[in-house]
């Protein structure tokens, strides 16, 4: 792991900032009105960020390609999630598919 | 707590319990992945209590494990958690005229699940009961899952053989699939993923995800039409 002090600093920054977001909403609600599109934009930003994270962590390792086993596993999970399979099934199937491919010698 | 049981219907309580169980399981995978990525137990344990927002914690772990700066990871996590601000704007008062400590706790237990359950109820007493039941349930289940997952994860040595590295993207994907069914969001997410992948070979960890936010421009364009 990186320098523990730096990790702790990042962790506390994230904690304090997140609490500030949670606390500010109810306070602001009593004082001002926000344009309605702001909420949609924030939600879209979160989804885009997370989708980008799925792509990078699912397909890359360092600055290169992670190999086929992991993205295939994630894809299996994604298809199951799209078909509304239970969360437990999605996650276990993704891990099992990736592990299965590696048993067959595909990295 | 007893007033929660009197106010809410059995069906709502059961749904909240199921949601908390799901949170517990995500916590398990979160703790296991954090330890498998090389973090000591205290990192997922402290985050699960202090941050209490799963997606941003996964993001933080993922960026730092990939070699990113923890402060940049915190910034990315905060971007994900900015949605809690509009949550607070959308909700009616969840505490009422009460002690400041209760108000602080009410803010901390604000999460996707507690907000969803509160909004689904019809009147203010039920909204408050559902918010607190789910919020406190997540406050217990998320750290409990994370710590247990970290303890289990530290036993497993060869995580790639078990396909654990596929669990993290699968977890995130499962969480955003409902949002991806929206055509506008789905397209923005696909463009954002493509931008991040194109940038990943050249940029340091964490930045490709932030660059993906350019995909939001496709959503704004539509919104400007009256």
Task: Walk me through this protein's architecture.
In chain A, strands 1-2 form a two-stranded antiparallel ribbon. Helices cover 75% and strands 4% of the residues of chain A. In chain A, a hairpin with a 2-residue loop joins β1 and β2. The model of chain A has no long low-confidence stretch (mean pLDDT 88). The longest helix of chain A is centred in the N-terminal third of the chain and has 26 residues, at 4-29. By secondary structure, chain A is mainly alpha-helical. Chain A is built from 4 helices and 2 strands; from the N terminus they run ααββαα. Chain A has a domain at 67-107. The radius of gyration of chain A is 19 Å and the shape is extended. Chain B has 226 residues and is mostly helical. Chain B has a domain at 2-157. The relative contact order of chain B is 0.15. The chains are: A mainly alpha (107), B mainly alpha (226). Chains A and B meet through α1, α2, α3 and α4 of A and α2, α3, α4, α5 and α6 of B.
Helix content of chain B: over 70%
Helix-strand makeup class of chain A: mainly alpha
Q: Could you report the average pLDDT of chain A, rounded to the nearest whole number?
A: 88
The tally of beta strands of chain B, per DSSP, is 0
What overall form of chain A do the CA principal axes indicate?
Answer: extended
- Spatial extent as radius of gyration of chain A: 19 Å
Give the DSSP E fraction of chain A (strand runs of 2 or more residues). under 5%
User: What is the 3D shape of chain B?
Assistant: globular
Oligomerization state: heterodimer
Instruction: Flag low-confidence runs of chain B.
Output: none
Helix proportion of chain A: over 70%
